Amino acid sequence: MFGRNCKIIGQYNQFNSEKATEYEFAPKCWQLSATSEAEFIWDADTVLSRHSNCRGRWNYVQNMERLSDVKNLKKMLEGCYVTIPTPFLDTPEMALNETALRAYVRFLVDSGLNSDYATLLAGGAAGDFSTMSFDERLRVAEIVVNEAAGAVPIAMGAQTTSTLELVRLAHAARKIGVNFIQVSCPFYFAHTEGDFEEYVRAAAEAEPELGIILYNTFWTSRNLSFAMIERLADIPNIVGLKWAAPRTDAMEFEDVCSQFSDRFTIIDNNLFFGMSAMPALGAKAFEVHHCNFWPEWGIKLIDEVHAGNYAELTRMLVEEGMPFYKLWVGIERDYTSGDGYLDKLCMELIGLPSSRCRPPTRDIRDNYRAATHAMMQEIGVPRLKDFT
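Structure (tokenized):
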């Protein structure tokens, strides 16, 4: 994105052919405007060797540092992308259960989900962001950052219907110390791509050092087109694309992965791990609900990705992943809708604190505890408690 050759715009003295000492450096994706009668392209190394004291050197160094930061954020995002459910107290007010949330994070980290294997998402969809206040969302992120203590990168859910609130969330996320925010197209109204582009740019400009993950939630809002992703690719701190797409003969999922996996860290949110991890598509991160109750499953997944064992990835999804998702789809069809409720029930059944999701998602625990235990037993989840 920021290649080694850079455009320098400066003044050219036609009388003595000396280049002035005021230079502006910019990556090719940034807007540039001529500052004098002539524009010229220099190799960045030439600038440094001939004009070591000029502003071009300072800007060059600054932007190389930014490039390094972007590369680090992209690399940091590789692995399992784990949405931590938010636990609530079983009281009428359903306040945050901070002790339980700390137990959830500690379980994940102690089980091996460190920076080599995962990024933890605080307050995403499975984390009940849609039922929490602004302050509650920040508190959840603070607890996760504090309990993880640098062992694993942290993203914060920043979905909202308001651009102004998105900017506030971005500022707060930076202060809390998260590495990324997850952003999707505003829901409720059918916003245009232009609306979404302005929305994302506002967050990126508000906190240019904060990594942004684009999340294509086509089931609740506008589906991101190829052209839209191409336009957003010029925003340097957009480092991740959490990608799912409707299945059509146009192969939108494969098209975007294959074209943009060098630019973004692609997070496969379509459960195509055995295919998306192949070099031709290049996904390097994977949305994994199983990690919340079976962290070793996610660790094995990433080890198999690194080994290029795509057949084993597919077997894992079919034999150990599909039963979980089939049960989830059945609950959505027959009882209630939402996210995170099945994760929480699975976590309860291995001995972690119990919690329901906030309404309007209904409590599934009594109605689905037996079926969930049977599913976990079938796929071989460790630590499973006896059920009577």
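Residues 1-64 have pLDDT under 50 and may be disordered. The first strand starts at residue 5 and ends at 9.
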